[in-house]
């Protein structure tokens, strides 16, 4: 519940900032990221990290905040979410809010490429800015 006595500390007040690529802080945990973050920090790409459901990373509240914040932008520029892990939270949010994502011009990128480095392999995606 939003109360005017409690101000968001994640983003200082001021005009919106436009960026190409933003890593959502703190493994997309809702302690640091709220609607105000997405109203102010406007990006073409957001990296959604976190693969810890016990710690709520990524947080469903953060993903919902993106939808709410983006709805208040003055343009409908395309936004791409880049999840670093295939989490249950991300899958449920994607299915539950797919129509709203389309209305807001938000795309969730599924990584289909794998990078292999020495003894380690991990999913990857290429972004051209």
From TrEMBL:
The Gene Ontology biological process terms listed for this entry are: axonogenesis; dendrite development; microtubule cytoskeleton organization; regulation of microtubule depolymerization
Domain of life, source organism: Eukaryota
Q: Name one GO molecular function term.
A: actin binding
Q: Name one GO cellular component term.
A: synapse
- Could you identify this protein by its name? MAP1B protein
> What is the organism lineage in this UniProt record?
Eukaryota, Metazoa, Chordata, Craniata, Vertebrata
Record gene name: Map1b_0
């Amino acid at each position: 519940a939003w109360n005017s006595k409690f101000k968001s500390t994640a983003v200082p007040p001021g005009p919106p900032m436009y960026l190409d690529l933003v890593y959502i802080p703190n493994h997309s945990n809702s302690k640091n990221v709220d609607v105000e973050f997405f109203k102010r920090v406007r990006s073409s790409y957001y990296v959604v990290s976190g693969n810890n459901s016990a710690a709520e990373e990524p947080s469903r509240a953060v993903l919902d905040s993106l939808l709410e914040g983006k709805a208040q932008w003055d343009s409908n520029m395309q936004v791409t979410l880049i999840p670093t892990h295939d989490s249950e939270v991300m899958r449920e949010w994607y299915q539950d809010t797919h129509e709203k994502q389309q209305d807001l011009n938000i795309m969730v990128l599924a990584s289909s490429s794998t990078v292999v480095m020495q003894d380690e392999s991990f999913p990857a995606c290429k972004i051209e800015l």
